[in-house]
Amino acid sequence: MQIMKKNVFYLLLLLSTQLGFSQNNLLWQGYFSYNEIKDVTESETAVFAASENALFSKNTTTSGIKTTNTIDGLSGQTISAVYHSVKFNKTIVGYENGLIIVINELDGSLLNVVDIISKQLPSDIKKINHFMEFDGIAYVSCDFGIVQFNLNTLQFGDTYFIGDNGAEIIVNQTTLFNGFIYAATNQGIRRASITNVNLIDFNQWTTIATGGWSSTTTFGTDLYAINNFGFIHRFNSVSNSFNGIIQLSQPALDLRATAGYLIVTTLNSIYIYNSQMALVRQINTGQIPESNVAFTCATIVGDTIFIGTKENGLIAASLSLASSFENITPIGPSRNNIFALQTTPNVLWAVYGDYSADYNPYPLNSYGVSKLNESGWLNIPYEKVFGAQSITRITINPSDENQVYASSFFSGLLKIENDEPKILYNQTNSGLESLTFVGPNYIDIRVNGTVFDKSGNLWVTTSRIKNGLKVLKTNGQWQSYAMDVILESAIDNNFGTIAIDKNGTKWLSTSGDGVIGFNESTSKFKKITTGPDAGNLPISNVRTVAVDARNQLWIGTTKGLRVLPNVGSFQLEDQMTANPIIILDDNLAQELLYEQFITDIAVDGANNKWIGTADSGLFLVSPNGQETKYHFTINNSPLPSNVINDIDINSTTGEVFIATAKGLVSFKGTATSANDDLSKAYVYPNPVRPEYQGTVKIAGLIDRANVKITDIGGNLVYETTSQGGTIEWDTTAFGKYKVASGVYMIFISAQDGVETKVKKVMIIR
């Protein structure tokens, strides 16, 4: 339920327009996976590949690769078809929800076309399956029929409902042959004269073949179609019927004619036929160097075959050299659905395992882990992680970032050193235990939240067992703590994240018992749960906890937000009580994030809170929660999804990494951690050139530093006090007007005046 209106600040530069987001948006960055190829298209010198929700193209002449994603204005929804019009130099992207985005390759501008989304049709039949161009019109095959789209005016024309009595039917592909438009549908192949001005009348469409048909295309002087059983047919113009000529071993996923060849794609094979329908090349998945390859589509440019795969990206192969294969996919994470991540100033790690809202990890997935540093992405495949499945958390040792622990919500705890998996801790070689209520022979070790304490010990939570809290000490020894003394039912409990405060108290989020506090120095457990006398949580299902700079515990539940005013109350109070944050909305008292499913909370260097939700996007609120600074969604930002899985912040740069269900993006905030002194203070960008539209950042500050900016004559134009390690200046004189070109002096001083620093910045208008 959304209740915040008045206090929500929507960043104007990020507002969605018909042309998409600004191409010069410097605040956001995308880290997308391009491995899941949905469709390919081509020009004479380039191949265009559509992945799950992003595009990339490779120029076959220069070998240059260009990517386009939500940062550039694409939707985060799932792409289902792509087509490049050579005549109009436009690339058309079709989505499963009916959205069309037109990319003008000349200037890179994007146009969102929502006519199909707006049609009064069930939402589950608006998927776009194929584009066919004829005489300046793109005929769009959809799950309900065919729509005309004018590539010159970029306007929709007629819609054809060609099923019996004008019913909606799934149209998979269309083609033009001898003056007729042919449509391969789930209810036969239907055709009508392309010059008929009344094609909106279903009576004008004739059924040529019955049954379900996956595809049809014109190749040379013939018309071909493939039925749902993988039988290739050729059209006989004399009898007006299709005759079967080749039976494939699997159903066809893609059919196209290009570069003088007919190309048929099945899950395991690519078949390439010449104009006489002689098989000139067959490529099977077993020939590809990558493991577990599944094909989705293929096309040809020049002498190169470009093969789309389900999880291995785009593979290029020579048409003439049988053993030449090259993966040309832009490097990125293995998948877009990153479930959890952790970052340091130098590195980011990501994992892809998951579980449902009720912590069910089934069906188990097998995706490995990924690492990003200045050299790019390193993807460690499942084959190297000793069989660890459903990896749901990643924890970097703060004392040694070359040592990383990955939590498997089924297999135990994976230790990675120097980018190499070293050991999988499980019930045979550690203090970890399998759940036992299924039976003694079933091994299921559900490790989730992990965190290092100040002494370098790793605290580990394991769900649905008696001894759910464990610690791996620096000497390699394990110690367990029985949780049945505080949990209502330990074998039914699941753990979310874990946090440690300045007193060494561990705060555990649980699925049925709220928040559990534990400090081994006193061996005491305490609980914050529902009810005014038991902790005042809105629900006992807590997903995440975070300790802020003021020693407050922020608690994210599946039904809203609570804050424990002081973590020190663990030592002082028998029953701790958490409170909602009350804000004024239209002069009415409202609860901040009322009944929101909160998935994660991250605290930045200025003590602001970044709060992720299960379906409402991302919130940034002030240190006390009274001001909502940003509320980012798919409608006003490059977020590819409103489902926020995890958030983490680079404390040095302030970059906020946001893992969503549809991809990883980052927002370049200014709230960095404060420094100990001013020796590392710096200004960027410097100089500020005319084309730059962003703000000037002064970074490397100590907390509460006073910053004054003057012109060369000593006239004050800006003054502020830092909260954290970075401030930004919009290059105006106190927000009134843009300052003129010239050199500006930046005077930085500590709150007590003992330490000072002077910097300069040049502004060029």
TrEMBL record:
Domain of life where this protein originates: Bacteria
Protein name per UniProt: Por secretion system C-terminal sorting domain-containing protein
Signal peptide range in chain numbering: 1-22
Classification via SUPFAM superfamilies: NHL repeat
PorZ N-terminal beta-propeller domain boundaries: 47-206
Pfam families per record: PorZ_N_b_propeller (PF21544)
The entry's keywords: Signal
